[in-house]
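tl;dr need the bound structure. longer version: we got a ligand (NAP) that a collaborator sent over and nobodys looked at where it sits. i said id run it. heres the input, straight from their email, havent touched it
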Amino acid sequence: MKAIGYQRSLPIEDPQSLVDFTAEVPQPGARDLLVRVQAVSVNPVDTKVRVRKTPPAGEYQILGWDAVGVVEAVGAEVMLFKPGDAVFYAGSIVRPGTNAEFHLVDERIVGRKPKSLSVAQAAAMPLTTITAWELLFDRFQVGRASATSGALLIAGGAGGVGSMLIQLARQLTSLTVIATASRAESRQWCLDLGAHHVVDHSQPLAPQLKEIGFSTVPLIASLTGTEKNYPGLVEVLAPQGKFGLIDDPKMLDVTLLKQKSGSLHWEFMYTRSMFGTADIQAQHRLLNEVADLVDAGKLRSTLTRELGAINAVNLREAHREIESGRTIGKIVLEGF
Ligand SMILES: NC(=O)c1ccc[n+]([C@@H]2O[C@H](COP(=O)([O-])OP(=O)(O)OC[C@H]3O[C@@H](n4cnc5c(N)ncnc54)[C@H](OP(=O)(O)O)[C@@H]3O)[C@@H](O)[C@H]2O)c1
């Protein structure tokens, strides 16, 4: 099968940083689906693994943690899917990625592809959707519909995760959604997805929030730039508020949260698959629920850019764009 990967960790400008190669089609384990991949999206995690991880000598690391495809074959104990099913999923960080014609994934972290979306539109969604959903409902324990009131500040609203978190919070909760964006186009994108307000993360937040009627907010989702934004975000966190984060700050001073009895909530969307937690199948359920919400017109795809076929040249371009830290929504590649 065709696959894209690397043998040495190199800057994306180097043509060897991602290369096309041929690999054996893998064999499914007991709960695995063998998926014929149709489209993938690219996430910051792809660029981070490329920079940080060197595969064993002579082997290739295959990146890619978002796919849409059709089930080709199933393992002996598979119960949730059958060959021919259209699926979407993010996969596991401790297994090879989705940038290959065929890919293995545990059925318990796979959902049915939304029927109303093209394969490219659907490929934009799984990883960021799982992250946003788990942060909102599992880590923050926000109630659905009218159960929770208050405000949620989303730092990095126009990015992949922010684009889903804005929609989930707006459509499924009664929270006031305040996103951050620093450019006219990212600000407009956040408003189009349902943010009630948008403030600028490149400017002090407290005065901007005051202007729209909030002295503090009880929930803060810090999705990117946490190390830099942290003091300003803690300043606007309400007493007894919740601070959630998903990115990679090198150091955070947790004592800043003490006076406010603020709590810190990590979300890592690979936790369930990495540790095989007892509730791993929650990701299957949430992806199916999101597929239903998409098909009912309540949520939309966050696809903004299609870069062509899944090959090394186009993936290098996608990595370059992601590394700029300024993408809006999601980048997708389709077909081999
Ligand atoms: N823990 C997990 O499970 C998990 C899951 C998914 C992603 N992540 C991580 O979370 C981070 C965000 O992922 P993503 O896919 O949403 O990223 P992304 O799509 O690359 O985010 C791009 C957006 O970030 C905004 N931004 C840039 N600098 C910012 C700053 N200093 N403060 C606030 N916003 C800023 C930009 O908005 P403007 O152009 O308006 O400035 C841009 O629209 C990445 O580090 C990723 O690896 C973790």
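gonna send this back to them w/ a short note. The pocket of NAP is lined by residues 43-45, 48, 127-128, 131, 155-156, 158-162, 180-183, 186, 201, 223-225, 228-229, 246-247, 267-269, 322, 325-328 (CB under 6 Å).
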